[in-house]
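QA checklist item 7 of 12: single-chain prediction sanity check.
[x] sequence parsed
[x] length recorded as 115
[x] structure emitted
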Amino acid sequence: QVQLVESGGGLVQPGGSLRLFCAGSGRSFGFNVMAWYRQAPGKQRELVATSTTGSTTKYADSVKDRFTISRDNANNIVYPQMNNLKPGDTAVYYCYAISRLQTYWGQGTQVTVSS
């Protein structure tokens, strides 16, 4: 059974940093793409950042130069480093992965940026 388990969310002040973690399991041949989405209250889920096994990364314009996504392919872990967080970054963050054309979601972790 495939699982994506997230951790690292929490409450942080504006300008602060957080690192999220997502560990994927259950696919012996790994995940082609691992990514993070987020959904704020009353808004649609949006892509934050993606990472492929070839180390190609892509970011939403709203997080460029603040977020950096890294990946441990051997252990199927993807972890975005989020710096200079803003109240607008408050959302539930979801891990997402693709393995051989099948897609998977994590359960989500709350990130709240507030003073």
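[x] summary fact logged: DSSP finds no helices and twelve strands in the chain.
[ ] second reviewer sign-off
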